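Lab meeting minutes (informal)
Scribe: AK
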Amino acid sequence: MSGATIRHLTAANLYIGDDDTSLHLIINNVKLPKLTEKTKDHQPGGSPMGVKLGMQKLEPLDLTFKLEGYTPDQLSHFLQPNRIWYTVRGNIRDMSQQLDIGVKILVEGRMTEVDRGEMGDDSISSDFTITEIFKYQEFWGVEEKYNFDFDQGYNGIRIDGKNPYETVASNLGF
């Protein structure tokens, strides 16, 4: 029987838009979107307890990251009307199997918040928030882990290559 393994992110990189400029030297952190199913509380009159029902809908996604130093090229993406692609790449080290696994995350969204923090004696850093995410794809190696495509509705969701809402999509005529 195999047990759990320890996997650590050992390196990360970020690319913004069509620019192939690597931000690996100034990226401080990236917070991937929190995956949350929308729920609804249900308290029937004939039951002494309530239940939180999953509604088969995904809460809106946000991607955040922090860059060190003054970054005027990245600041220019704020308040632009069109969504652009953000690419996060990383190296995950499987400590048990002693393997390196490439992770790639593609996000189509808009930069809607920039927090430039405080200017200190030694440095400045900025926090960026990407919302209006219409597409999110995550790959571990060559395997697709997640695919969320707002435009495709229930057909646009895949987890491990499978659509958990295949029946719903069919019922809706997709």
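Next up, CB showed the second protein from the same session:
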Amino acid sequence: MIVLDLDPQNALRLHFGIPLDSIDGISRATLSHDPWQTVMFDGVDGVDGVTVLPYGAVVEDDHRRFEALVDHDPNWLADSLHTLALDANDIVIVDTPPGSSVYTRTALTAANIALNVVLADAASYAAIPGMERPTPRRARISRVRCTS
């Protein structure tokens, strides 16, 4: 299983024990044309079978360059994942920022299944129809309502 962070907050890594001062991630690797394998964290924090690909820490100019690159190529994520030579049984979970973004669009373009996690409140409920708009590959959007 691969968990991939496409949220510029770069917080997903913290759930897997990657040190706070680690700056490596897919944004930096992509901009420097390094293979993603160089920024993969395997079995971190005692979680066997999970590989983490953090977003990485970048300065604002690099953040804009990375976002423009992702926005320019809708297949960027699918193509990048292809370089990892994943097995048909591999599962990739992609974390994106909330709401519509270039990161969400590229994730949905590459996805077979999409899951939106929303709060159990009126504002989140009202936003659900916007989440169900067709995507380029017509990915099905599933809903989960959390009550805690």
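CB comment: The domain at 2-111 is CATH 3.40.50.300 (Rossmann fold).
No objections, moving on.
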